[in-house]
UniProtKB/TrEMBL annotation:
Gene symbol of the encoding locus: bioB
GO molecular function: biotin synthase activity
Chain's role: Catalyzes the conversion of dethiobiotin (DTB) to biotin by the insertion of a sulfur atom into dethiobiotin via a radical-based mechanism.
Family from the record: Belongs to the radical SAM superfamily. Biotin synthase family.
UniProt-recorded name of the protein: Biotin synthase
Annotated source species: Pseudoxanthomonas kaohsiungensis
UniProt entry tagged with the keyword Iron-sulfur: yes
Annotated residues for binding of [2Fe-2S] cluster: C99, C130, C190, R262
């Protein structure tokens, strides 16, 4: 199965993939997955909300928007020492990646040194770092890179033509601009979306098309299933057929073959069987720990049991001299990016 890195996907092609009989779609996605990754490895990431609630934006799904009454209290930016304590706990629990989220439209310049201190501290623990802080200027993206940030998360969220029904306070182009600043700063991009917001299958194809046709594939593609939070405009949306979620993951895997595809929000409400299908469809990362940013996530014990039942291994990340990710799970040291053996990393043999 070829793993083409294309940036010219047409909407009809993506819709045709989403329309495939499920067994055929799963076969194609799993083939691409194993050509590019060890399908038994799943990266374990932990999320921390470093600044919660009180956000001025109007994202219709979000419990942290000030204007909706969701019971989420606004907090100020956490102290770096407290963030580092949480990161240490996440590492001890087996996480290899730590993502810090802030409920901002965009950071103020005065916030950047404090966030930079958190990033540098988390990085020094040997964890992969990710942050999601809203829109960034080029200078802010550069400062985060200098602090040791690996990935910046900024989602397109949905298809361009459906976006305006979900968010009015900033537009698609604002998001594309921030992604450009992130790439230009040399950061890896983490960019995905949410399904189950009332969009059609063609609009899910539109989200995947927008992601796969970015100037560079996002290094990481979180696929969230809407967590319906009472008080948000999208609470009460008709539940998406779970197989549509699996199809979305499979087409993300096929169209962005070398990206980490993250089974993100929405797992708490999923059965183990549905999660197994998502992983079989090519998802290779989950959030671990009982909370996402403000909403629930499966208990650690449930996830450990799921890994055992499915025969999966966590993918801890360390970095060799040439910057390649090396998974050190199950006692053995093997490359996480198993695409091209790199003699410089001692993996050639
Ligand atoms: N404020 C920043 C921003 O919007 O870029 C960072 C945090 S924001 C919470 C990060 C992402 O979480 C959103 O882009 C959205 O995709 C996802 N998200 C937020 N609320 C969600 C929900 N209820 N269900 C699923 N995903 C959600
Ligand atoms: C992403 O795409 N999903 C994560 C991460 N990026 C930051 C966030 C999910 C948030 C779910 C709602 C909440 O817990 O507040
Ligand atoms: Fe604010 Fe981000 Fe929530 Fe939108 S998704 S309301 S920008 S915290």
């Amino acid at each position: 199965m070829p793993s083409e890195t294309r940036h010219d996907w047409r909407r009809e092609e993506l819709l045709a993939l989403l329309d495939l009989p499920l067994p055929e779609l799963l076969f194609r996605a799993a083939s691409v997955h194993r050509a590019n990754f060890d399908p038994a490895e799943v990266q374990v990431s932990t999320l921390l909300s470093v600044k919660t609630g009180g956000c001025p934006e109007d994202c219709g799904y979000c419990p942290q928007a000030q204007r909706y009454h969701t019971g989420v209290d606004a907090t100020k930016l956490m102290d770096a020492a407290d963030v580092l304590e949480k990161a240490r706990q996440a590492k001890a629990a087996g996480a290899s990646r730590f993502c810090m989220g802030a409920a901002w439209r965009s950071p103020k310049d005065r916030d950047i040194p404090k966030v930079a201190e958190m990033i540098a501290g988390v990085k020094a623990l040997g964890l992969e770092t990710c942050a999601t802080l809203g829109m960034l200027s080029p200078a802010q993206a550069g400062a985060l890179k200098d602090a040791g940030l690996d990935y910046y998360n900024h989602n397109l969220d949905t298809a361009p033509e459906f976006y305006g029904e979900v968010i009015q306070t900033r537009d698609y182009q604002d998001r594309l601009d921030t992604l450009g600043h992130v790439r230009d700063a040399g950061l890896k991009t983490c960019c995905g979306g949410i399904v189950g917001m009332g969009e059609t299958r063609a609009q899910r194809a539109g989200l995947l098309q927008a992601l796969a046709n970015l100037p560079a594939h996002p290094d990481s593609v979180p696929i969230n299933r809407l967590v319906q939070v009472p008080g948000t405009p999208l609470a009460g949306t008709a539940e998406l057929d779970p197989f549509e979620f699996v199809r979305t993951i499979a087409v993300a895997r096929i169209t962005m073959p070398r990206s980490m595809v993250r089974l993100s929000a929405g797992r708490e409400a999923m059965s183990d069987e549905l999660q197994a299908l998502c992983i079989a469809a090519g998802a290779n990362s989950i959030f671990y720990g009982e909370k996402l940013l403000t909403t629930g996530n499966p208990d650690v014990e449930r996830d450990q049991a799921l890994f055992a039942r499915l025969g999966l291994r966590p993918m801890p990340l360390v970095h060799c001299e040439s910057g390649h990710g090396i998974a050190t799970g199950a006692g053995a040291t093997v490359h996480a990016d198993i695409l091209e053996p790199s003699p410089a990393c001692g993996r050639a043999a």
